[in-house]
Automatic annotation (TrEMBL):
<comment type="function">
    <text>May play a role in septum formation.</text>
</comment>
<dbReference type="InterPro" id="IPR025669">
    <property type="entry name" value="AAA_dom"/>
</dbReference>
<dbReference type="InterPro" id="IPR027417">
    <property type="entry name" value="P-loop_NTPase"/>
</dbReference>
<dbReference type="InterPro" id="IPR050678">
    <property type="entry name" value="DNA_Partitioning_ATPase"/>
</dbReference>
<feature type="domain" description="AAA">
    <location>
        <begin position="25"/>
        <end position="201"/>
    </location>
</feature>
<dbReference type="Pfam" id="PF13614">
    <property type="entry name" value="AAA_31"/>
</dbReference>
<comment type="similarity">
    <text>Belongs to the ParA family.</text>
</comment>
<protein>
    <submittedName>
        <fullName>Chromosome partitioning protein</fullName>
    </submittedName>
</protein>
Length: 285
């Protein structure tokens, strides 16, 4: 019911479509800076695309388990999770859970066990490509796989970068936003050179934009000058409904589909979907 209501409010005429890509787009949502909107972006884009007919898998790769919480997927101790896939090579399909209330959406949860993985991975075989293998072996045909990274550049994020073709970087519209971004880009370049030649930064999303401040505007200009058309036209405003939604185990798309947070994420998802069928770089990846 909520899913239907959300679609009716967000897309009343049904005119907006989110075309499915020819091949699975594996997108790593990364920024080693904490609290910039990685998880919020992962959850809301995933829900928006799934509500519009795409088959979507969210992989929660953060021991905090925020994406699992946001999608209301059980992830207490003892629940099979992404740790089991990375360390014990359990197939992803054995741990993926259907997200209740959102057709076409699945989530591989993270439990607190994942906190140990960063260290345990150091001594396993093919430590950087465990997730890539697990995703490649998944028999489900997804249109999108979103990997929600932790706020660090350790082996978990490296696994996400090796598994993906695209990196989506959420950037918070605030003063220190661009600091540290070079380090992320350097890491992406290293992964591309040595482990995953297909990797591209395809998408930048400006988050928590506060239009009352001139600073937000300045950051937006800076980011657009630097990254050009990788930056989505849609900008996510700071919106209290976005931050309330997770405490109800919902995305803002279903929690308050009429809010500015929901409509902005809806527009961002639409742009991503359209780029996916246009851009040859992505199609050939
Ligand atoms: N557009 C928004 N408006 C208001 N609050 C937001 C918005 N986007 C995210 N938040 C809030 O900001 C906080 C950080 O967001 P989020 O958890 O998505 O960031 P993150 O990058 O995943 O953090 P971490 O680095 O810890 O994983 C959360 O409390 C979230 O609810
Ligand atoms: Mg997060």
């Amino acid at each position: 019911m909520e899913a239907m209501r959300a679609v009716q409010i967000l897309n009343p005429s049904g005119e907006v479509t989110m075309p499915r890509p020819e091949r699975t787009r594996v997108m790593c949502v990364a920024n080693q800076k904490g609290g910039v909107g990685k998880t919020t972006t992962t959850v809301n884009l995933a829900v928006a695309l799934a509500l519009h007919g795409n088959r979507v898998l969210v992989v929660d790769l953060d021991p905090q388990g925020n994406a699992s919480t946001g999608l209301n997927v059980p992830h207490h101790t003892g629940v099979p999770d992404v740790y089991d896939c990375l360390i014990n090579t359990v197939p992803l399909e054995e741990v993926a859970q259907e997200v209740e209330g959102i057709p076409n959406l699945w989530c591989v949860p993270a439990t607190i066990d994942l906190a140990g993985a960063e260290i345990e991975l150091v001594s396993v075989v093919a430590r950087e490509s465990r997730l890539a293998r697990a995703i490649a072996a998944y028999p489900g045909h997804f249109d999108y796989v979103f990997i929600d990274c932790p706020p660090s550049l350790g082996l978990l994020t490296v696994n996400a970068l090796v598994a993906a073709q695209e990196v989506l970087i959420p950037i918070q519209c605030e003063y220190y936003a661009l600091e540290g971004l070079n380090q992320l880009i350097n890491n992406i370049n290293l992964v591309r050179q040595h482990l995953n030649p297909k990797l591209e930064v395809s998408t930048i999303l400006l988050t928590m934009y506060d239009r009352r401040t001139r600073l937000a505007d300045a950051v937006e200009q800076d980011v657009r000058n630097h990254f050009g058309d990788k930056v989505l036209q849609a900008v996510i405003p700071r919106n209290v409904r976005v931050s309330e939604a997770p405490s109800y185990g919902q995305s803002v798309m279903t929690y308050d589909p009429g809010s500015r947070g929901a409509t902005s994420y809806f527009e961002a998802a639409q742009e991503i979907a359209e780029r996916g069928i246009k851009e040859p770089v992505i199609r050939n990846a």
